[in-house]
């Protein structure tokens, strides 16, 4: 399925935009498109600052940016999503800088993510895919929320967009609410629970449950929260795929993948071309799309509450006091 063009009147003129994981791939392309549509400042949150600095130079040298947005500002921040301190240190500096400059934040696009072929624990003790794609994304959402809320004006409601995946619809390991006698999220740190084909989709399913609960607790008058999936895109997300699987991936890319520019347009569409009607919802290739059955069926309310509570318990241990006002 191809991705349509953005509406012709789409603009981010004068909007400040934060994009995580933005020195390569979809994040970089989303930053470029945002600048081309008038956004400034654009903040690149990246794991390696030197790579972010190089991306900044390339973005500002783009002919369209130079012509249409010649005074654009791009700033680079370090963000390590594999550790609690990496997230909190970024948020502290970023928010302090905005307050010192008397600035807000109009749009946050949380794009950073990993897809591992092998089991690995993050420095936090959590399995790394769950840590980055779920826990750290949830934590960063909560840390940015007050800044986003304070940036909303009568003319523009701040946006929080999280990149999820259609793979959440194919998860086999979570079909019902787990028994109450153990911590489900903690159990995912056991290597026996890890399967390559399931874990990435599971991490996205977990963050969808979290975002749906967060959306129910935060009014769309304060911040519009949604999530997107651009489908298969030609990016570096699968750079960890072993050599023997590369031919299959190349064929998949050649027959199914859209160019990265189209994926970036999906990101921008959900923060610039739709409004409060998108709150708590999922856009796949720019189209409002139903979640997987497990997200909305009779079991979902209990399961969503379970994932929210276990997530908040883990976040409160990492950052005491993170949740009482939500």
UniProtKB/TrEMBL annotation:
Keyword Oxidoreductase: yes
Keyword Oxidoreductase: yes
InterPro entries listed in its UniProt record: NAD(P)-bd_dom_sf, SDR_fam
Keywords: Oxidoreductase
Protein's UniProt name: NAD(P)-binding protein
Gene3D superfamilies in the record: NAD(P)-binding Rossmann-like Domain
UniProt xrefs under PANTHER family: DEHYDROGENASE_REDUCTASE FAMILY PROTEIN, PUTATIVE-RELATED, PHOSPHATIDYLINOSITOL-GLYCAN BIOSYNTHESIS CLASS F PROTEIN-RELATED
An annotated Gene Ontology molecular function: oxidoreductase activity
